[in-house]
């Protein structure tokens, strides 16, 4: 591989999400390859803090005291309430966990508890050197439009009964019949409310040396998220690394210095703006 595959709006998926359950249940992993984004860091007050998502990570954490490890483990395993956990750890610990967002509008601690116990926090689809048609099919599949139709759309009422007199607009419930079975959807096929397109500021870096080893996700601030993909994802040449920086507001010119990036390792730097309806995850 000698080329770089840069997406203007790359997507990461939570491994415990409903989408992954559907893919596993449909035995589609043979057609869809993913690579794990295991490590999640919070960049706070000039330092990186690795967020522990299982008991082993808590035991190995280098920023938690022995007492804090014990109470975080109890809290994450639903053995104590938040107020008891908060009373027995430093304010910094609560601040770090409150900053551990993987979405801009998400509430960090509830999402943290939901993801606790997973060995793979996020995953990224590997495109590699596949045929363009294959890549397009996978992207369309994520949008629920790559479905081979044999029959007409069957409209259902809220009790699952077929509607004989078809209305002009599709109802909330509908069913598609195709070559590989049937799929039922409990949502509007098209929304009457247009989704607001938000401007995002993006910086893409190609590095000869990683910021940190492996593939990881960084919560830099409430409005800035960073993730790194290594060359094994087949998005960049061997022994190189690809970093995406997403921001709601214009990025600072010295963000590379702020995260401690070695400028000599930067092979390529690209910045652009675009309007998107969905965040990277």
UniProtKB/TrEMBL annotation:
The keyword Transferase applies. InterPro entries: FAD/NAD-bd_sf, GDP_dissociation_inhibitor. It comes from the Eukaryota. Belongs to the Rab GDI family. SUPFAM superfamilies: FAD/NAD(P)-binding domain (SSF51905). GO terms for molecular function: GDP-dissociation inhibitor activity; transferase activity. GO terms for biological process: small GTPase-mediated signal transduction. This is RAB proteins geranylgeranyltransferase component A (RAB escort protein). Keywords: Transferase.
